[in-house]
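Researcher: We're reviewing a set of sequences before deciding which ones to prioritize for further study. For each one, I'd like a predicted 3D structure that I can look through quickly. This is Conserved hypothetical protein CHP02391 domain-containing protein. If possible, include the structure in C-alpha cell form so it fits the rest of the review sheet.
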Amino acid sequence: MYAIYKTTEYQIKNDRYYPTQLPFHLIDERILDLALKFNDDPNRSIFNAFIRLENIVQKRVNSDKHSSALFEYAFCSENSPLICKSEDKKASQATARLFPNIYKAFRNEHAHNEVSKSPQTSIREFLLINELYLLEREAIKNDLG
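Model: Here's the predicted structure for Conserved hypothetical protein CHP02391 domain-containing protein, in C-alpha cell form for your review sheet.
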C-alpha cells in the first residue's frame, strides 16, 4: 500500500479534498427528504429523523411508549415485539441495543439544545440514524412477543 496511507496524517492534512456531503444512494427513502434538506439545517434534519423513527416504531409495535423506553420495549425487552435479523442471537441482541443507545447518545442533545457541530460530525450522526432506519426495516416480528 502507499506509504501516505500508513497513518491518518495524509487524510487530516487533505481533509478539504474529501466531499462533505451525505451519500444519498445509501439513505433510507423514509428520510431522503430530510437528507435533501440536511445542508440547510443539519440539527433539524437529525432531530426530525429521530421523531419519525419513533413514530414508525410506535405504529409497528402498537405502543404509546416514547423515547428510549419505546426502543427498549420494541427491541430489547424479554419477548420484544421486534427482533433484529441475525443468524446469531447475541449479535441480534447487540444490534437491538443500538436503538436505545444511539437515541440516548444523540437525540436528547438535538431536542434540548441548539447544536452547532462540524459538517463531518453532523453527517456521521445522520448516518447513524439512517442505519437505525435500515435495521428497523430488516427487523422481524417476534412470534413470542
